[in-house]
Amino acid sequence: MAKRDYYEVLGVDRGVDDGTLKKAYRKKAMEFHPDRNKDNPEAEAKFKELSEAYDTLKDPEKKAAYDRYGHAAFEQGGMGARGGFGGQQHGDFASAFSDVFDDLFGDFMGGPRGGARSRAQRGSDLRYDMRVTLEEAYSGTQKTVNVPTSVSCGSCSGTGAAGGSEPQTCPSCSGMGKVRAQQGFFTVERTCPTCGGLGQTIKDPCTVCRGAGRVEKERALSVNIPAGVETGTRIRLAGEGEAGLRGGPTGDLYIFVEVQPHPIFERDGINLHCSVPVSMGTAALGGDIEVPTIDGGRSRVKIPQGSQSGRQMRLRGKGMPMLRGQGQGDMMIELAVETPVNLTSRQKELLREFEKLSEDNNPESSSFFKKVKSFWDGVKG
């Protein structure tokens, strides 16, 4: 039975590009894969035919020979034999399908496709939780932190090999870091068990780092905390993380900031809130009070006559600075009218007298009890 034209098998034109060719093969290979067509005895033959066609057309030299001589280019004694293609086994669909397998699943097999895996590995990123006061968050500060981490081994310069020797290419995976195994129609890649995926082995490991290329050490780092930081602010220190394995690049250090609660001020973004107690006399008669500000200063606030608990006043520009920006938040003053305690007999006497004389000076109380009386009358009715 004569072989079908390879372009016809794959359903593509002769001027097809590599991307379209692979896409066409992948689609048809998935359609006729024997594992998906167990009840179709012709599926395996069609799958082999597809793989043979793709294995030929994906190779530029084979494709050129096929375009010129057709199937005769690969027959024994044909033009292909003189050109170097004679005797090559076709139908090697496992090899052809592995290209598509790599394209579909390579990212899940732990490494780049089509190239040797580098022996060096990037170091891990590190996290450090730092607590700062609200005053430090307001003005910014500089802190020194001690970070336990891995640093490049000075004895072997990070190579992991002793005496200035160099790591050798792994004989099991030829430096790929991965080995392939045939499973039915699939070619499956696994991490090389000899080198652990590094692609290289060390014959004489460094006695200090035992071949890792890095050692544990505590480092002191100076960290600049900018003004305006909030809880959750993340500061990245590039290259200050864990040293890479066998000379690989260093990871980063991330500082996570936590601003401690303050005994006087409560923060809300760039604004501050401060609850200030005032006496009944000051709230009733009015007056001036001094309140603290986050910068350590004082501000004079005028209390209007008849102020009630919960009244708020704004001090503009007395809040927190914006992180890495221009502008300043405000400070909100909330009055808390304080009821006096531990009264003397004279004070109690004066308050009773004041109470008798102030029946018309409590509008909120009068309004409330009028509503209560109306409510009770309605219930009785």
From TrEMBL:
Zn(2+) 1 binds at C153, C156, C206, C209. Residues 5-70 form the J domain. Keywords: Chaperone, Cytoplasm, DNA replication, Metal-binding, Repeat, Stress response, Zinc, Zinc-finger. Zn(2+) 2 binds at C170, C173, C192, C195. Residues 140-218 form the CR-type domain. A zinc finger (CR-type) spans 140-218. CDD domains: DnaJ (cd06257), DnaJ_C (cd10747), DnaJ_zf (cd10719). CXXCXGXG motif repeats lie at residues 153-160, 170-177, 192-199, 206-213. Its cofactor is Zn(2+). Binds 2 Zn(2+) ions per monomer. It comes from the Bacteria. It is found in: Cytoplasm. Participates actively in the response to hyperosmotic and heat shock by preventing the aggregation of stress-denatured proteins and by disaggregating proteins, also in an autonomous, DnaK-independent fashion. Unfolded proteins bind initially to DnaJ; upon interaction with the DnaJ-bound protein, DnaK hydrolyzes its bound ATP, resulting in the formation of a stable complex. GrpE releases ADP from DnaK; ATP binding to DnaK triggers the release of the substrate protein, thus completing the reaction cycle. Homodimer. The J domain is necessary and sufficient to stimulate DnaK ATPase activity. Zinc center 1 plays an important role in the autonomous, DnaK-independent chaperone activity of DnaJ. Zinc center 2 is essential for interaction with DnaK and for DnaJ activity. Belongs to the DnaJ family. HAMAP family: DnaJ. This is Chaperone protein DnaJ.
